[in-house]
Amino acid sequence: KDASSSLSSRKRRFEETAETVEKKIVAGPNGEQRRKAVCKFWHKKKKFGFVTLQDTEEEVYVHKTQIKTFPLMLNEGDSCVLSAIRNDKGKLAAVDVHVDGCELANAEAGKMRALKKIAEMKQDKPPAFSFKFSSESTLDSKEKIAKAVSDYEMKITPWMCSWLKKNQVPREVKKVCQLLQRELERAAQDTAVDSEEFMSIVSNMGDIVSDQLMKRKQARLAVSDSLKNKHRRLEKQVARASEAQAGGDPSSASENKGDASSAQKGSAGATDQKMTRLQGLKGQGPVEALKAIINEFGPLSKKHLSAIYQKVTGAGFKATHGVPVTHILRENNTTFKLSRDKEWSVVSS
After folding, report:
1. Can you tell me whether residue 35 is helix, strand or coil?
2. β-strands 344-346, 103-104: how paired?
3. Global pTM?
4. How far, in Å, are 129, 327, 332, 344 from residue 304 at the CA level?
5. Element (H, E) at 346
6. Would you say 312 and 281 are in contact if contact means Cβ atoms under 8 Å apart?
7. Dihedral angle over CA of 178, 184, 188, 194, nearest 10
């Protein structure tokens, strides 16, 4: 009742506000409620400004909260469409402002912008390698190559930061630039740096490096996409395993909803029975308590051990015994062992 009454009161307040705004709207000379205006001034820090109405040349106050397009701001000279009202001070203020040429600032539009940005980032190519020096340059061939590679390193670093982990970028950039510099220095031994043959070699090397970097980027993004749902896949595997242990066949459970629901009920009942058998856990020592949980549920991660202990006893493991679960498990390495799946089990005697 409280939720329904609060929703109805919100709806009523919204309708009252909409009606109040409609009554306050100042129409144009021809009776139009939506009027065109041009931005005269915008304070970027305080997020407000003034626009000039095209029909009456009156100044209207505009705040960021009334702009309904993205981005939520105006620039001097921007044209927009708005509704003008009289505020409490009797001055004109703008509501429902739509800036010309801008998208609506709603949730769906934000998602579309984010997807578009991701697509652009995936297709974004690395910066091109350039080797241009004036005829008056006093640098020798090795110094020119080192200078060009150093400039390329400055260009490529922010590009690699957009799709690679920040701690991996310096190593990868150094590897690429060292390879490029070594190949160019080798080519400079056979041909002059200012010759057309050397410039063609530079162009070919730049294309090869760009292609390799683009392939590396696409492979990295593909790996990132595949890892996004890893946790969800693991949860599904654990659910299937628990259904199988409870006596339900996963294949038959997927064939009809009745079998699936019965398998879930069986799994929940089995878990409740295990929890009931662990009721005396709080009176036991830390090692005995962890052994009892593992013997009842099988190999478990440190996180699941802590969660089960807290659910059974109603108190945290560290709060009860004064030490964390990991400390007990690692100190008693003759009793507990850690598998490759990061799950702890009891060492069989």
Report:
1. strand
2. unpaired
3. 0.37
4. 52, 15, 18, 10
5. strand 344-346
6. yes
7. -120
